[in-house]
Design goal:
Low-confidence stretches: 1-5
Radius of gyration: 23 Å
Mean pLDDT: 82
Shape: elongated
Distance between the termini: 55 Å
Number of helices: 8
CATH architecture of the largest domain: Roll
Number of strands: 7
């Protein structure tokens, strides 16, 4: 007599999303059909498709193949195993990221936090969300939000590509500059892009909130270091981020 098929019905959506990631990780690199997952969790195929879509939007590397023999598979080399983050540690990370508004890669920070919570055990993830719900930030209603680093500047730095800026100086005069990005630096009042300005033929410091437009060019920037530019600016804090 063959054993009864395994089912994991009756779980809430949060627990099911976590379980889906673990199920796909356990079966990788084999593909799992949506119908098989639907039977496993006792939900509809449409529900599984919505769940997979939500995980993909959160940055979980799930690949989908359509047609006969198709299904879902997860790239195990690009996922985190279950993490031993405590709820307090996860909330500490969330607090730090919440204070990082306007900083480079702040958008990526939000998806990183989602991955951390998704990779935690279901119980710890729920406890972290509950604890986070009891933490609030107070701010003046008229307080200005920090200017966000344009995504194109983040990409230029990551890919080491030359970027064309329309940049306003302190007097408000706008000039077009082709810049080789070298570093992002935090000052006491703003974030800055440090790079080699081809218009001036020298290293320059560009205040992010004065960038009026940024266009990524196809050209790869030469490999320059922060130290060789020898930038001197009284508002800059030249402290390397250590991971």
């Amino acid at each position: 007599m063959s054993p009864a098929p395994r089912t994991v019905g009756g779980v809430n959506r949060t627990d099911r999303l976590y379980a889906l990631v673990e199920e796909l990780r356990a079966r990788a690199p084999r593909r799992v059909a949506a119908r098989e997952l639907a039977e496993l969790y006792e939900v509809s195929v449409r529900t599984i498709e919505r769940d997979i879509g939500a995980l993909q939007q959160a940055g979980v590397p799930i690949w989908a193949d359509v047609g006969r023999g198709g299904g879902y598979t997860l790239d195990p080399s690009r996922t985190l195993p279950p993490l031993n983050f405590t709820p307090a540690e996860a909330v500490a990370v969330a607090i730090t990221l919440a204070r990082a508004g306007g900083s480079p890669y702040s958008r990526s920070a939000r998806t990183a936090l989602q991955k951390i919570v998704t990779a935690m055990s279901a119980g710890d993830g729920a406890a972290a969300r509950d604890l986070a719900g009891r933490i609030h930030f107070l701010a003046r209603p008229d307080a200005a939000r920090p200017a966000s680093v344009p995504a194109v500047l983040e990409e230029a730095m990551t890919a080491r590509r030359v970027v064309r800026l329309a940049y306003a100086d302190v007097a408000g005069t706008v000039t077009d500059r082709d810049v080789e990005p070298v570093a992002f630096t935090a000052g006491s009042r703003a974030w800055y892009l440090i790079g080699w300005c081809r218009l001036r033929g020298a290293a320059r410091v560009f205040r992010i909130d004065r960038v009026r437009r940024a266009v990524l060019l196809e050209e790869t920037a030469p490999n320059r270091t922060f130290e060789e530019l020898k930038v001197d600016h009284p508002d800059l804090v030249a402290q390397e981020l250590v991971l």
